[in-house]
Amino acid sequence: MLDALKFFLFVILLLVTIMLNQHVNSKRSAELDLGLLWSIQDAKGVYVVPNQTVPSGVYTALEQSMVIGSLLEEYNDVNTSWVGETDWTYRANLSCLAEDYRYVLLTFHGVDTFASVYLGEQLLGECENMFVRYRFDVRELCDGTTHELRLEFRSPVVEARKRSLDRKLPIVPVCPPDVYHGQCHVNLIRKMQASFAWDWGLSAPSMGIWKPVRLEYYSSALIRDVTVAISESGAMASDQWTVGVGVHLETGLASARINGMLTFKIIGVPLTDESQQTLAVTNATNAQGELLIEQQLTVRKDAVERWWPNGYGKQTLYSLYVRWEDAAVNGVKLPNPDTMIAEKVIRIGFRTVELSQELAADGLMFYFKVNEVPIFAKGSNWIPSSVLPERSYDANYVKFLLYAARDAHMNMLRVWGGGLYESDHFYRLADELGILIWHDLMFACSMYPTEPGFLRTVEEEVRQNVRRIQHHPSVAVWATNNENEVALRQNWYKTESNYSAYYAQYVELYVRTVQPLVQANDRWRTVLLSSPSNGDLSVKERYVALNPQDPHYGDVHYYNYFLDGWNAAQYRGGRFVSEYGFQSYPAYTSWPEARSYGPAEFGRLVNHRQHSPLGSVPILAMIDYNLPVPGDPASPGYWPELIYLSQLSQAMIVKIETEVYRARRLVHGTMGALYWQLNDVWIAPSWSSIEYGGTFKLLHVWLRDIFAPEHLIAFVNERRQLELVAVRDTLAPDDTLWDVEVRIHRYGSFRPVDRLRYEAVRVPPNTVAPVAEWDVYGHLAQRGLHPADHLILVSAYRHTTDQSTKQPEHQRQALAENFALLDKLKNIRTGQRLLPTVTVSVVAAVCSDRSNLTSVSLEVSVSVPALFVYLQLTPENSTLKQCQFSRNGFLQFQPVRTVQLTCVDPGCRNKIQARDITVRTVNELLVR
């Protein structure tokens, strides 16, 4: 009884520890956060910013002290470029006492990027990689005296330039395109590659202490990381899980012998063998003070629940607790026994993930199986949530973006290789939300050097970050780089004349260095060499495939700006489409400068922020292909109209392309659709579905339907047939029966002119089911109807054979709805070009003081059908944040429609009224 009580109290204390440490932080012997009272100044002492907290960055500090304006407004990306070309110094006073501790280490979890670290007059060491954790032994300096802790930062722009000199083989591209307004040679330094500008982002060559700084005190060993490999393999695979645990211990910065005990517990889950709970360790750490200890735990399958991706089941997580206790704790009476004890808790999930590349009739398949279930990957690509690294870990904003992905039925995000290894918070949320992570290593769109110093820091970067991240069940696959294989093969950067030299560098970096290191530190996952790539075929073709974009193998990135993106017939898809997309402009009200700029001045700003080398030509061309174009560019209404049409065009292109990929699951073996890109780093033309700050573009609102687990797809295929495909990503029940209705509508009438029904269509689980191909154009011709005057609306309903429960047709709740255009909207003929009277009424509004969320129920009434109704709050509601409409950009072929508006409203100060909402429709441009 007493033992049971002790165990109960132990569990309670452990749960408190878990909560306090947010599941991932070690409870170290002692740890002091050095976050407060830093000062920052430039090398000449002209600018001094006192009382700064870390994490920090120079741009952020200068903004807060009003030395510079916001980096994200007007032309400040260029006006503040001097900041990144200047050297800066961080200073703080530090007083510490080593006392009886054996180890006192000053640990920087992230320094961006080049800095000399001093304590007093003693140089502790140099930092050169923003992705690496740096540790310095300060025990001898912790004598109670106050020393100045100083980091002398060197400009990454200047440092990159120095590294480019006297190279026989230039590391290309040397500079980004001029339209980026960026800096050169970013591929020579280990810094976020997008810091020097990208086609979607501004240049912000940041510097600073972008992650926490801590003093670590202990006397035995520290648990730095815990890694896992969870499998069903072995003789007992049918009824148990094996959890291979790797405990990464540290003893300062030098080799030391340790003698003690490791304890392992999976909270709430009994191990099949109690002897696995403890492991005696008598060993020595290596020359860097590091030691890996491995232990196998086994649990019965009926004692745990599986972890599933979003839409396939629950995301059940378990806490794995690891404790180190030095043998001296029980051997003698110590004044401070806690200094010889270390603890760490991580959360794990029981699941299997396999990247399947089995032989197909026309190549190799490429898809993920989770818990033996094939998964169609639906999702997007993730870039850092801020261009400034110290802001990119904003927990609330990261949470908002990941919830937005989850709510749009995404089950996968690709962490893109030109950004960051994300925060622990990011991966915890991905675990909780069931969002699988395709994880690039941080190399993108470039060749890279391979001299020993560069490879040495890359090795440490890979080791540290893979060990930190790999225990998360959401991580599905690693890829060592983004687009570098295809760039080399297709001569993107004029490498052809020195192909063998660049090829040798490619193999040295990724094949001989990065990939083996990832595999050594994560035995749980596949490691791909690149994206896009031909997967296993690329390996057979000596790591650089003859055609890395072959749709019969691996993954592809597909962009085509010169064909009509509204035409479904142009899309084929590959096995897995890991990038595709189209640009649009952010909402007019999202631009901070919009109210003070005239049309011409506003246009210059938009063009300045348009970093695509093609400019806005693709956006304008696609509008011109399909839509009525706005009027005079000099008129005040030009830009609001153009922005609306750009978002509508982007939404249509990504919708049609995604739906073709989903529909071609059986025909082409397409099993993944990750559009480019989820989020943005500033207000600018880009491929994102969510603007910087959180406003949804039309695309993101539409994604709730595009990615819906049960969806009815309708498009005109290459044979000019209306193709109908039912899609189910759900696993149960085994089969469902759908009734599918096709309605032909005139653009000017609520009533359909014709109907077609398909009864009791059998739709199996986790696949697609062809419904029909219909010669709709032949049917229209027989009835004397013109395609330009009509569109198709389709609906799917649950089939029921029980007449007593069968609802009248007008009361049936559709499980899926969709539409298909039969001609370009700009070709609608005069008789169907009607201007609806649109009225928006506020039916109800409520705001929660606790959540600071205001929810408004709106009724949208139209006198005649309205095309792509676009609702937007007026600029006067700028204090409201992250406002989202439940529906937007919709076709309204019924007189009244209800829409919910939700906003973050701190203090519930705003009362939204009908006059606060503006409405646009395509009809307005058609009747002009």
From TrEMBL:
<dbReference type="Pfam" id="PF22666">
    <property type="entry name" value="Glyco_hydro_2_N2"/>
</dbReference>
<dbReference type="InterPro" id="IPR036156">
    <property type="entry name" value="Beta-gal/glucu_dom_sf"/>
</dbReference>
<dbReference type="InterPro" id="IPR017853">
    <property type="entry name" value="GH"/>
</dbReference>
<dbReference type="InterPro" id="IPR013783">
    <property type="entry name" value="Ig-like_fold"/>
</dbReference>
<keyword id="KW-0326">Glycosidase</keyword>
<comment type="similarity">
    <text>Belongs to the glycosyl hydrolase 2 family.</text>
</comment>
<dbReference type="GO" id="GO:0004567">
    <property type="term" value="F:beta-mannosidase activity"/>
</dbReference>
<feature type="signal peptide">
    <location>
        <begin position="1"/>
        <end position="26"/>
    </location>
</feature>
<protein>
    <recommendedName>
        <fullName>beta-mannosidase</fullName>
        <ecNumber>3.2.1.25</ecNumber>
    </recommendedName>
</protein>
<feature type="domain" description="Beta-mannosidase-like galactose-binding">
    <location>
        <begin position="38"/>
        <end position="211"/>
    </location>
</feature>
<keyword id="KW-0458">Lysosome</keyword>
<keyword id="KW-0378">Hydrolase</keyword>
<keyword id="KW-0325">Glycoprotein</keyword>
<dbReference type="InterPro" id="IPR054593">
    <property type="entry name" value="Beta-mannosidase-like_N2"/>
</dbReference>
<dbReference type="InterPro" id="IPR050887">
    <property type="entry name" value="Beta-mannosidase_GH2"/>
</dbReference>
<dbReference type="InterPro" id="IPR008979">
    <property type="entry name" value="Galactose-bd-like_sf"/>
</dbReference>
<dbReference type="GO" id="GO:0006516">
    <property type="term" value="P:glycoprotein catabolic process"/>
</dbReference>
<dbReference type="GO" id="GO:0005764">
    <property type="term" value="C:lysosome"/>
</dbReference>
<keyword id="KW-0732">Signal</keyword>
